[in-house]
Amino acid sequence: xxxxxxxxxxxxxxxxxxxxxxxxxxxxxxxxxxxxxxxxxxxxxxxxxxxxxxxxxxxxxxxxxxxxxxxxxxxxxxxxxxxxxxxxxxxxxxxxxxxxxxxxxxxxxxxxxxxxxxxxxxxxxxxxxxxxxxxxxxxxxxxxxxxxxxxxxxxxxxxxxxxxxxxxxxxxxxxxxxxxxxxxxxxxx
Length: 189
Hints:
By secondary structure, the chain is an alpha+beta fold.
């Protein structure tokens, strides 16, 4: 004789108690996937970097936090005006950040602080008068696969005027986005 709620000929339904570790297992799986994606992004695409020093002021200030795109130069060439991060040629364990002024084959000359690229005065609106200097640099041609880089704070920068053009193999990223302090949040220019 059938019991209440059961249909004649129906198989009995087993009630399985909920597994205790299911919620934690899903959480751990999601955490591992999130960490793997984060590691991939940081290792291959974007790296958070803290600017140390004043050589790129006012564009980038000391202790400012930025993201560096480590993949962009696999897709597009380095351009004049890009702010690049590179291994210091005299000590590759250190990283520097500077602005690209000259490309391979360009003739660079600095006369009393005025930069000339291929005999044309470079308009540098990112260098306010308070950050200029009067240093000169002799006429030089940027070698193949190299870049002439300068800090925006010319009187406080150790750059290509001191260590020469930077080979492209030392450049590993482009400064693209500032995220700290909050008033500097946005695209790096």
